[in-house]
Amino acid sequence: MKINIEIDCTPEEFKDLLIPSDRQADFAAKAYQAMVEAMGAAMMKQFAGFRPDPKD
User: Fold this and answer.
1) Which of 10, 12, 43, 51 is the most buried (most CB within 10 A)?
2) How many angstroms separate the CA atoms of 38 and 2, rounded?
3) pTM assigned to the model
4) Distances (CA, A) of 39 to 23, 24, 51
């Protein structure tokens, strides 16, 4: 599995993320949620062929 994360911010904004603060906690929470969603989508795509046909 390969996961790419793109962070669009200025160098100053990136420095703010590295210093412990409420902004860093908010970023960590958002990054975690994005990772969970991406992994869920990847799992659904990976195992789509194993789902039973709803017509059966």
Assistant:
1) 43
2) 11
3) 0.51
4) 24, 22, 18
Evaluated on CA atoms 15, 21, 22, 26, the torsion sign reads positive
Residue-wise pLDDT for 1-52, tens only, equals: 788 888 888 988 887 777 777 777 888 889 899 999 999 998 888 887 776 7
> Helical H runs in 1-56?
11-18, 22-46
**Alpha carbon distance, N-terminus to C-terminus of the chain:** 31
Report the C-alpha gap between 20 and 28 in whole angstroms. Answer: 11
